[in-house]
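Hi, here's the filled form for the chain we discussed.

Project: internal
Contact: R.S.
Residues: 276
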Amino acid sequence: MKVTKMSHRTNCHKAKRKRHILAISGGKDSAALAVYMRKNHPELELEYVFTDSGCELPETYEYLDRIRAVLGIDITVIKPERDFDYWLKYYNGVLPSPQNRWCTRQLKLRPYEAYIGDDLTYSYIAIRADEDRGGYQNTKGNIIPRYPFVDGGMTLQDVVRILNESGLGLPDYYKWRSRSGCYFCFFQSNDEWRGLRKYHPDAFEKACWYEENHSDGRTYTWRGKRQDMHLHLRDIEGDPPDLNLDSFWEKEDDNRLVNVLGDIDFGGIDITNILR
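And the returned structure, exactly as it came back:
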C-alpha cells in the first residue's frame, strides 16, 4: 500500500501528463465503479486512490483491504499534511456543518488536488443514473469529471448486482449507517449516532468531547439546532434499530439526508440543495 502525505503546496507530479484516476470513498458506489471499470475499460491505466481524513471508521479500512484483495489492485492512500484537530483550532473551534464543510475541503479535496497537481486528469466519479446530484468541480480546469454509471444508465440495482457478482458485498458499517465518511459526520441520523455509540463507543465519546470542550464557552454541536436549542449527542436516547445488509437496499431512498435533517434549523439556511 502506497501512502502519500500531501501538503497544499505539494505537486508530486511535476511533469504534466494525462492521468486516469478513480477515487474510492470506502462506500458501495465507488467500489462498484472500480469493478465496472476494470471489467469494461482494461485499456485504461487507472490509478485508484483513497483520501484518508484520519477520522474514518474501522469498517472503511477493512473494506479497502477487501477491495484490494478481490480486485488485485493497489490503492494509493492520500493523507492531508495537517489533521482535523489542527483545522478545528484554525477555525476557532467551529465544528464543520452542512453550511461550512471545511472538513471536506481541508481533509479531502485539497489533498486530492495536491496529489494531482497540474496534470490533465480524467476523474471517474461513481454518481449513478438514478441520482440527482452534481459532482466535484475543479476550478483550475485540469481535472475532467467522467460519469461512467450515468453514461451507462447504471442504477442502484446495477450496483447491487456488481457488488454481489464480484464477491465484494457491502462494507460492514451498512449494518447501522447509510453512507461512508468520518465517524463524526454531521449528516448522520439519530439512529446512526446510536449505531456509532453501540459499535464504536470510543469514537462516540470522542465526538461528544468535541461538542463539550470549547474553552471560550461557545456551543457547537454536530446535529445543529432545533427551535433555537442545540442538539447534543448525549441527549440521544435508545438503541439503534436491528438492521441487516439486505434491508439497506430497500431503505436507501428513505434515508436521504434531506429527510433525515430537514426538520433541523441550521441558522435559517435552506440545506435542500446541499444535501441532494
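Let me know if anything looks off before we file it.
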